[in-house]
Write a structure and sequence with these properties.
The complex is a heterodimer of chains A (784) and B (162). Chain A is α/β, with parallel strands linked by helices and 784 residues long. Classes of the chains: A alpha/beta (784), B alpha+beta (162).
């Protein structure tokens, strides 16, 4: 510890701490632009110059490490004179267009110019002009003359985003920030550059010129998209969400936000919003009053329950629904006498149901990811599925963590990967068994009988051996399964093998979780095995077609593992009730559309993958006649005379679900009573590998106009290894017909040698590929 | 003593005489009544009357939609909505002043960085129905177009004091 004095106040700080950090600890503000607590030190804005005793010249506080007995004066005559001088230089080339600048009102330069700027400029020569740039649909770089070259955006790209997409080119007077390599900024975290920019050089394109900052009221909310549960500040004007900013929470999203969380608000104001209850009569949709629609639904459900039996009713919800909605949905369905309720729509292997010690979760705190030194990532499109968790893994690799990856595709994670094994989905269990065997040998441990047989039959490859060595040498190891592993047809096998690997190396073991409420769904008991009797899971409900379906937020052709089967089941059903915020494909197969509200218009709770319970309030009034889904389900419960549906608010529902219990006690990833089997997956022909593209995961992002213009939202293409392409006698770029079951689609096929042989990668969750079958399985490719 | 003086003053009608003297002075003095609307009082170039939105000589509207007038307006009489115009500039899609709310303080023209919103010398305007005095962007621009010459002259006279 070093004792220093700042403005007459003494403080003990760590060796190596900078003067600006020490001052902030004391609550002394030093003006700065280029310094940011999460980024490296650049010391190029010079705004933080302070006077230090015995130093002949003022020194930058951000780049000056503390020394014993140092005396710092942040507001002395010399310091203030230096700061004012720097401000005058910064303002020389800064255009005075604050009235039209979107940053106006929240601009660091504007704020500091009030304190340190002169009342008039002494500079009468021509100002520097930097040409505007088009760097993509999210970040506007239209007025680059405003840039003060702090390079925060550049450092963010390198250090947090993982790729240097913006850089500073040229020197001195000609220095300018520009996108290079690809001309656009395609990072899934690019929106953070807008927050970081201290001036109005980088601003939000969707928000551009639509409101001024002082008009917006700021309301807290929670992200409904990925399983991180980012804390949002939803900014509202005239009962309309105008933009979304992060709320700093060091344990969750730090000060960042992924673009999905930040720009998806555009989907809330989409023209496709459903604002009136609708009933289909004689093939035509009629707008009706709530009372009529709800009576129609309750009569219909009651009739089906009486005539054919309640087990012919099934409910499907997305994991993006709130805890309260999921709980009331399952309570309604169980009240009717059915057990068929599920929220795991993209899962295909349900053999782990009720064999697990609790709800599958991350297995560790999100903040602990930064301190892990060995990762084993199984089946995860980490960067696209969990942008901010990927960033945390990236931070860990900076500190020397080794990442071992077992996956079916080799997307660039923008971080060093120590060992990777890219294999077709059917071979993933084998690779895990190899790693397990090598690890057991390294640790000289005897394996559990449940996995012994499978492990005996494999010989570890060199890569599996290297992975085992890497994991065995770690102190803080994490074995994490991604969305792909959860959607995999052998998900429970993967889980079992990964679990044994984790046990052997004393690792944390968990799942990244697909959506905001992937953990909450289990706690809300929205799973078929929660009751004494077991019902049908999401997949079984489609195979054995039901008479009536209740869909909560679900667009079956996009949100389910097998869209073909889902559409067939919906078509065959007598009654489909869709609770949805949007008019969507359900217009084709549903009988009733009930307008419910997205997360900004309802109160609710999401439980993130680390088991963090986060409740939020509505930020704006419901649009039109739309109502929060928990209210709709509550009234439906009353109309069906199901007891226990007299909640006055969503908090009452939440308290009934969680009831002051310790959520962490209900989490658990350990499988019991499942034994590993030798690969029984009979593989014939080309296998489909599907990812759910980052901007196709849920109903809101699918309607966010600007996100849909990004490269990540480009029209899906079929990717295949060039050797396979040659075998099929096709050319890269050619249009092909892809067939699964009785449906086929036409896509262009592209050679991608990073894929393993024998697979075709086709995105799921997209309207273009909705005609296809399951996300995994055999797919036929032929010339169109 | 004071009581006695007051007692006698009441009989002498001193106040009445004083008051009549004043009336008499004004009766013979030069009249200052202005026969409005035939006659008008002189106005200063800073007179704050009806609002106008101005245009540049090339017909481009001055207003850039910065909303500073809306923010500064103490009566909250101004309502503005903006968006990006096709040429990429920030422009208003709506600029309304509720003259019933307006207190003619002049802070809007003070705040305007481009002299777009100004208060003219016009004070003879009226509304016959409810809502007639809710001035929208085209109305304000029309006022500006009609009186541009006068407005420009007044701005020029004021310029040397700013």
């Amino acid at each position: 510890m070093i004792n220093i004095e700042i403005d007459g106040k003494h403080i003990d700080v760590e060796n190596g701490c900078s003067v600006i950090d020490a001052a902030h600890q004391l609550g002394i503000y030093i003006p700065h632009f280029c310094y940011h607590k999460k980024l490296s030190i650049a010391a190029n804005c010079r705004m933080c110059l302070v006077q230090i005793e015995k130093a002949p010249k003022p020194l930058p506080a951000c780049a000056t490490p503390v020394a014993e007995g140092m005396k710092v004066f942040t507001a002395s005559e010399q310091a203030v004179k230096a700061q004012k001088g720097v401000m005058e230089f910064l303002l020389i080339n800064h255009p005075l267009d604050c009235p039209i600048c979107d940053q106006g009102g929240e601009c660091e330069l504007q704020d500091l110019a009030v304190g340190y700027g002169g009342s008039a400029s002494r500079y009468h020569e021509e100002k520097r002009v930097v040409l505007h740039k088009d760097i993509g649909p999210l970040v506007a770089a239209e007025e680059m003359s405003r840039c003060i070259n702090c390079t925060r955006c550049v450092r963010f790209g390198i250090e947090i985003g993982g790729a240097m997409e913006l850089g500073q080119a040229f020197r001195g007077e000609h220095a300018e920030i520009m996108a290079f390599v690809s001309d656009t900024v395609d990072s899934e975290l690019s929106g953070n550059m807008i927050d970081l920019c201290p001036v109005g050089a980088l601003t939000s394109k969707p928000f551009r010129y639509s409101a001024r900052t002082w008009e917006l009221s700021r309301r807290k909310s929670i992200s409904p998209h990925d399983s991180l549960g980012s804390n949002l500040a939803v900014q509202v004007k005239n009962n309309r969400v105008m933009r979304v900013l992060p709320i700093e929470n060091e344990n969750v999203n730090e000060c960042w936000l992924s673009d999905k969380d930040r720009f998806s608000y555009e989907g809330l104001n989409s023209a496709e919003r459903l604002t009136k209850p609708m009933i289909k009569q004689g093939g035509k949709w009629l707008e009706v009053e709530w009372q009529v629609a709800l009576e129609y639904v309750s009569n219909g459900l009651r009739q089906i329950a009486h005539e054919t039996g309640a087990e012919y009713i099934g409910a499907l919800a997305t994991p993006h629904s709130t805890l309260e909605e999921l709980y009331l949905l399952q309570k309604l369905v169980r009240g009717l006498g059915s057990q068929n309720v599920d929220f795991r729509l993209r899962q295909s292997d349900f053999s782990a149901d009720s064999k697990q010690t609790g709800a599958p979760w991350l297995g560790m705190a999100v903040a602990d990811i930064n301190h892990v030194d060995r990762f084993l990532l199984v089946g995860s499109f980490l960067r696209k599925d969990h942008p901010l968790l990927a960033s945390r893994v990236r931070q860990a690799t900076k500190k020397g963590a080794q990442v071992n990856l077992i996956h079916a595709t080799d997307d660039d994670l923008l971080m060093p990967i120590a060992n990777k094994e890219i294999v077709p989905p059917a071979e993933m269990t084998t690779v895990l068994a190899q790693v397990l065997k090598a690890l057991a040998a390294a640790k000289q441990a005897t394996l559990d009988t449940s996995v012994q047989q499978v492990v005996q039959s494999v010989t570890p490859s060199a890569i599996a051996q290297a992975m085992a060595d890497s994991l065995a040498s770690g102190e803080r190891v994490a074995v994490l399964l991604g969305n792909f592993a959860q959607q995999h047809p052998q998900a429970s096998q993967l889980q079992l093998l990964a679990q044994h690997i984790a046990t052997l190396c004393g690792a944390k073991f968990g799942f990244f979780g697909e959506a905001a409420n992937s953990v909450g769904g289990y706690l809300a008991q929205a799973v078929p095995f929660a009751g004494a009797e077991h019902g049908m899971n999401a997949s079984a409900m489609l195979t054995a077609q039901r008479k009536a379906y209740i869909l909560l937020n679900a667009e079956v052709e996009l949100d389910m593992q097998n869209p073909q089967q889902a559409l067939a089941a919906m078509g065959a059903a007598d009654m489909v009730v869709a609770l949805s915020a949007y008019k969507h494909h359900a217009m084709e197969y549903a009988d009733v559309l009930l307008p419910i509200t997205p997360f900004t218009e309802t109160s609710g709770t999401f439980i993130s993958s680390e088991g963090r319970v986060q409740s939020f309030k509505g930020t704006v009034q419901p649009l039109g006649d739309a109502r929060p889904a928990w209210k709709v389900l509550r009234v439906l419960g009353n109309m069906l005379n199901i007891p226990g549906f007299d909640y006055n608010n969503s908090e009452a529902v939440r308290d009934e679900v969680l009831g002051g219990t310790d959520v962490s006690a209900k989490l658990g990833n350990v499988l019991h009573g499942v034994s590993a089997q030798n690969a029984t997956w009979n593989v014939t022909g080309l296998q489909r590998v599907s990812d759910v593209p980052i901007y196709a995961t849920d109903a809101i992002v699918r309607r966010a106009a600007s996100l849909q213009k990004t490269r990540d939202a480009a029209t899906p293409r079929a990717l295949i290894h060039s050797v396979e392409l040659e075998k099929l006698n096709l050319q890269s770029g050619e249009m092909v017909k892809l067939t699964q079951g009785h449906g086929s689609v036409r896509l262009s096929i592209i050679a991608d040698d990073s894929l393993p042989r024998g697979v075709v990668r086709v995105a799921a969750g997209h309207t273009i590929t909705a005609e296809l079958g399951a996300m995994f399985g055999t797919i036929r490719v032929e010339r169109a | 003593m004071e009581k006695i003086t007051n007692f006698f003053k009441t009989f002498l009608l001193l106040e009445l005489v004083k008051g009549m003297a004043l009336t008499g002075r004004h009766f013979f003095a030069r009249k200052i009544t202005v026969q409005f609307p035939e006659e008008k009082t002189p106005q200063g170039f800073r007179f704050r009357g009806l609002h106008a939105l101005r245009r540049y000589a090339n017909d481009e509207e001055r207003c850039i939609g910065c909303k500073l007038c809306e923010a500064v307006c103490p009566a909250m009489a101004i309502h503005i909505e903006t968006e990006e115009r096709t040429d990429g500039t920030r422009r208003t899609t709506r600029y309304d002043i509720d003259l019933v709310k307006c207190i003619f303080c002049g802070l809007c023209e003070e705040a305007c960085p481009v002299d777009a919103i100004v208060e003219t010398r016009i004070l003879e305007y009226h509304g016959e129905k409810r809502g007639d005095l809710y001035y929208t962007k085209p109305m304000l621009l029309a006022v500006g177009e009609k009186y541009e010459e006068q407005i420009a002259k007044d701005r020029a006279s004021d310029a040397k004091y700013r």
